[in-house]
Design brief:
This protein is mainly α. It has one domain: Winged helix-like DNA-binding domain superfamily/Winged helix DNA-binding domain (Arc Repressor Mutant, subunit A). Helix content is 36%, strand content 3%. The protein contains 5 helices and 2 strands. It has helices spanning 17-25, 36-42, 49-60, 87-96, 109-112, and strands spanning 34-35, 71-72. The chain has a two-stranded parallel sheet with strand order 1-2. The longest helix has 12 residues, at 49-60. It is globular and about 40 Å long. The protein binds a DNA duplex through α2, α3 and β2.
Length: 118
DNA sequence: CCTGTGACCGAAG
DNA sequence: TCTTCGGCCACAG
């Protein structure tokens, strides 16, 4: 499957993208995780996974509550950002919700991945 | 308006 | 299983 979108594929990403990301992430219940790509797909464009991650950075100091720690990458690992710190906090928060990590520091997506209801 | 910048993703080696 | 590489697109300055 091609990484590039077909020419005719519409861009469903509209203005206020970050706000949309927050709304989606808020629908993930405790004890479950989702991936950046999955959130992007829920927004209509699977190719904006990167922007989803970028939005989470803002979610940290956002006034509204956003369970940013429940978003991991496609491999089930906690992504490390420029700061480096915070990734450990994310793992702690998830473990507090009952999410187990493997020896290689990854979660079993087949088990914890949250599927958004239609 | 133009440019730089990523908490990503999938394929290939 | 790990590393490298190219492409993607919203947002800030």
């Amino acid at each position: 499957m091609p990484r590039r979108a077909d020419p005719g594929e519409p861009r469903v990403v509209g203005p206020g993208f970050h706000a949309r990301v927050f709304a989606v992430v808020r629908r993930v219940p405790a004890g479950h995780v989702t991936t950046y790509g999955q959130v992007a797909a829920a927004l209509g464009s699977a190719r904006v996974a990167r922007q989803v991650g970028f939005a989470m950075a803002g979610a940290c100091h956002a006034d509204e509550y956003v369970p940013w720690h429940r978003v991991v990458n496609a491999k089930g690992a906690v992504s490390t950002r420029s700061g480096g710190d915070g990734a450990e906090d994310q793992r702690e928060l998830l473990e507090a919700e009952g999410v187990e990590f493997s020896a290689s520091g990854r979660v079993d997506l087949n088990r914890y991945r949250w599927v958004f209801p239609e």
